[in-house]
Amino acid sequence: MQHGPAGNGPAPAPVVVTPADRRYPDLVRGWNQRYVSAPEAVHLVRTGAQAADVVRRAVREGKRLTVRSGGHCWEEFTFHPDVDVVLDMSLMNQVHYDPRHRAFGVEPGAQLLGVYEALYRTWGVTVPGGTCYQVGAGGHVSGGGWGMLCRRDGLIIDHLYAVEVVVVGADGSVREVFASRARHDPHRDLWWAHTGGGGGNFGVVTRYWFRSPHADGADPAELLPRPPAEVLLSAVSWPWESLTEETFTRLVRNYGDWHARHRAPGSPEAAVCSLFSLNHVSNGAIGLVTQVDATVPHARELLDGFLRAVTDGVDVPHRPATTTLGEFAAMPDLAEPRRMPWLEATRYFGTANADANNPTQKGDFKSAYMKAGFPEDHLTALHQHLTRRDLGNPSASVMLSSFGGQVSAVGPAATAFPHRDAAFKAAWMIWWTDDSAEADSLAWIREFYHGMYAATGGVPVPDDVTDGCFLNYADIDLSDPAFNTSGVPWHTLYYKDNYARLQRVKQAYDPGDVFRHSQSVTLPGA
């Protein structure tokens, strides 16, 4: 087993960056530039033992500690004004196979594209994780994960075998725990908590271990999903100038209804996964990106059938996607579906993040899971707010994305991630760089979201139509009664009925509430 960047000999000492260091300004901010902190120090560690030492000292000295892996947190959970010590895991970025565990070890600082490349180039396997190449495994996995292979292979947590975590006891003692999904493992609940229970709640993840639940034998090439050798990629758009409210709502309704019809696992349509970027009118167009496993029978027919279903009854022809698609770059070369090797397509798609790759951006985000197609009041709100002329921000959008398929093959309590009945999800996003744009940007996204879910208190409460919110798209407004008037607490929107069990895990492994943030799992009775 590797225990450092080289895997041999002692690891180099941690890097400690204080305010006097020229690197400090770059290490006290994350991906969302709204949040910049002023800790006493940032500790960049290379091993679990080093991470434990940082935690031990922070506990001994009574310092507020937060943890960073990839830095893509959408809220101020890591870079909070009250933080004293940031434990930065970005140097822990190794991916390797361990024959003793018959599993693949992935350190929390490993970025997703690097994980895919290491697993596929070396062993021909993958994990069904997210699209953005620079997201760190640390937060992505613990929050539930999602990606373009989800309908085919489920979520990344569905292949999580074990997790290594630094935890703190009631007496302040610090230890490293190995927790697996094995039925006899006394720490199985800690493994379960990291299958969608979120980062920064229970301890410091120092390594994830992946092996699919029913994989057998000792051949690494048989222990995780093999991605399709090739995929079909398509990108089309519809210009706003050609869309009436009727044609817009027909497209969106068709998209939701297709996913509601094909939510169950095991159908040929599980090979299809898509993103529908409902851009603000100032962008110029809305756009649809679709990926299909090109190795399944009749792959092109599946793609064509999906596009026919989405465009049914719409008399506006689609065009090449020449404007940005939410956070993704324009893809005009995919107007005619293109057959590409899987890894090439993953790199092409995952790095084409025009907004996400801008290190100066500030943003705000919201989410919803949908069990059924959009009702009429949702469709009305979507059109109303996307065509508002009091906002001129082409980055503003709602991204609809495929769910269901193999995701739905797992029960809602089998992992901490509960949204197994969702057919698709929606993500609101808006970006800005000029501070003067912040008030209008926040007003737009809040009025939009609250207006769309006005009938349920401004949030997508779990019911027959909606199914709460995605933890990895963290939204602090869910905790604010000014924006969430539903009476349904934020933790129900994220965790549904799994929250009480998460609280029990919190009590068992972090009874002193060392690991906390603005929406962390609370101790029972707190």
Question: How would you characterize this protein structure?
Answer:
The chain is of the alpha+beta class and 526 residues long. The protein folds into two domains: 15-225, Uridine Diphospho-n-acetylenolpyruvylglucosamine Reductase, domain 3 (2-Layer Sandwich), CATH 3.30.465.10; 230-359 and 366-428, Vanillyl-alcohol Oxidase, Chain A, domain 3 (3-Layer(aba) Sandwich). Helix content is 24%, strand content 20%. It is built from 13 helices and 17 strands. It has helices at residues 24-27, 48-61, 112-123, 137-142, 150-153, 188-193, 245-261, 299-311, 342-350, 376-386, 438-452, 490-495, 499-509; strands at residues 15-17, 41-44, 65-68, 85-88, 95-98, 103-106, 160-168, 174-180, 204-210, 230-239, 272-279, 285-293, 319-320, 338-341, 362-370, 397-402, 424-432. Strands 10, 11, 12, 13, 14, 15, 16 and 17 form an eight-stranded antiparallel beta sheet that branches. A five-stranded antiparallel beta sheet has the order 5-6-9-7-8. The longest helix has 17 residues, at 245-261. The chain is globular. The two termini are 40 Å apart. Residues 1-6 have low confidence and may be disordered.
